[in-house]
Amino acid sequence: MTKIIDYALPFLLILSLVLTAPAVQSSEGKSLGRLRPVNLSASCDDFRFKNRIKKSVKISVHGRLEVTLCSNPSTGYSWSDSAMISNHTVIWQTSHTKLPSTSSALGAPGKQKWTFQGLRAGKAEISLKYSRGGSSGSDNWTYKINVTVIDPDKKTDRSKTGEKLVREIFKNASNSNISYLESLVSKEFQAIHDSELRNRETLLQSLEKASLGSYSLEKFKTTGTEKTLVVTYTVKADETLWGKTSDGPEVQMSVFEKTDSGWKWIAQSSSS
Question: Is the alpha carbon torsion for 228, 234, 237, 243 positive or negative?
């Protein structure tokens, strides 16, 4: 039982890398504001409970974001017409509307709505302030949104990157270019092969001795996040990366992590 648990560790590592990506506010399904706006809102009760609210959201390039907030002009407080935006090249405000109260009661609150549109991929902060005459008192309300604008049309780049990284591994292994592989393999690298756990040192030792001969790579599929790529594929070669004779096509999985110095190979698994 202990061996089974130990062998499963690399697979659990791969799963955790994908599942622990930062969570963000739901973005209206896959349209990310293109088909219909992504909506955020806060009531007066929300602000009475917490007068400083912060949200995170994703929208696409050309996608729209609508923000609707409680407002009561009878109190002397009002929201700024124009939001403060940290990066106007990423997102911009297209409109601001004051919505009257639906109640006939004296002093009943209404709402204000702002609409924003994504311009290009990137990140920006939107900040809205509710104050009396521009004052900066502790009773003021603030509503801030961390916006990530993505370009869904560039999803194919992720697949291309994953396939390219794998092909570079096999190309340089075939050419015995160990210096390249040393720069690619993370110090935290883990792998499982033939029911054995491997690390960076054992991988590089195997690659130095490996003789792949002729090989073919097919059936690539890449998933992941901006900083993590999980690539599955099939490989047929005279010899495996671990220096063992290959009897036929193997299904393999390679995991890469994006760092300040580029992509790093952090995990590998294979099944014949």
Answer: positive
3-state secondary structure of 130: strand
- Looking at domain 2-22+154-271, does it have CATH number 3.10.450.50? yes
Q: What is the pTM of this model?
A: 0.52
* Mode of pairing for the β-strands spanning 84-85 and 122-131: antiparallel
Model pLDDT for residues 126-161, shown as the tens digit of each residue: 999 998 876 666 779 999 999 999 987 766 678 889
Q: Taking the domains of the chain in order of start, what are their residue ranges?
A: 2-22+154-271, 38-150
Tell me the CB-side half-sphere exposure of residue 134, using CA atoms within 13 A.
Answer: 2
CATH T-level topology, domain 38-150: Immunoglobulin-like (2.60.40)
Q: Which helix (H) or strand (E) holds 45?
A: helix 44-49
DSSP string, 154-190: GHHHHHHHHHHHHHHHHHHHHTT-HHHHHHHEEEEEE
